[in-house]
Amino acid sequence: MPPAADHADHWVSPLVRASAAWAWRLLLLAGAAYVIFQFLVFFGVVVVPVALALIFTALLAPAVDFLDAKGAARGGAVAFVLVLGLAVFGGILAFVVNQFIEGAPQLVDQVTRSIEGARDWLINGPAALSRDQLNLAVGTFTDALRTHQAQLTTGALSTAGTIVEILAGAFLLLFALIFFLLGGRNIWQFVTRVVPAEHRARVHEAGAAGFHSLAGYARATSLVALVDAVAIGSGLAIMGIPLALPLASLIFLGAFIPVVGALATGFLAVVVALLAKGFVYALITFGLIVAVMQLEAHVLQPLVMGRAVSIHPLAVVLGLTAGGVLAGIIGALLAVPAIAFGNSFVRVLTAKDPTARTEALERQDGPLVDAEADEHPHPS
Predict the structure, then answer these.
(1) Contact 262/251 with Cβ under 8 angstroms?
(2) Which member of 100, 120, 327, 341 has the lowest number of beta carbons within 10 Å of its beta carbon?
(3) Inside any domain, residue 175
(4) 270: buried, middle or exposed (CB in 10 Å: 19+, 13-18, 0-12)?
(5) Where is this region: Disordered (predicted)?
């Protein structure tokens, strides 16, 4: 007589048994993913700076390797590239702040005229509001601000705590970036020692392929961001929109979040155009931003990003959405680099052909010379 369990399975459809087997395994994987995600969130102050340091390493490592190949000391090359990079970033940031400070009085005057015009339109236009009604609305808004002053103060204190965390994260980012540039390949070799010896070489190759894709993503994103900033900034300058150059700089920084970054920062340009020049110029500015986004989506992304990182646009959009929902702006910023790294890592790790890494990378970004990489170590 068959065992009770086998007898019970006899009455269950094979499709149901297969579905149940898949279900508990998927639940186990989902639980593991949830635990890992909570771990990353708990240590986010450490994880995020290290992840950003890897992206910056992918962007700066070729310059360090070039100086190293020309005979410069590795430490000196790292110091020179870091100082130059900080000078460029600091210069852009200082330029943006300075231009906003210089252009603020002009913008305030234009906004004041716009508000006065809106007041006259509300009183003398179709709305036909009385001055008493308008003054009452302004007074109600002012009273609401005073009523919620305590909450605003609490928010300011929370913001101050956030600034402290940002400064600590920036210090950790710089510290990690220095050591990644100095000896990232040695660090990765040390990490792979936890893998069994028979699989260690394949994991090492998979990490190298992932870092190669990450470097291609960093370079391609920088080029796309520059094109977005130049195109939109030139249009703003031609139309005479105030703060055109600092707005273009913000668009450059925002474009490092694919698809939505430049559009979100470009919305600020639409607001400035609306306040300074009126509805028609705001509409033209919006059309300019949409046109540049179309250029990016149909020309730059396929030619530049598609060559550097073989990721389907749907995967990019889904990754951005999931990253934004789970971790806000930081999640949206790190989602696509993580997908780019994981795509190449998993593809090489699961490939049957030991030479799959080289072939995969040649399809993406031309041949990769491993001998050169070994001679000039970088994170991989």
Answers:
(1) yes
(2) 120
(3) yes
(4) buried
(5) 357-380
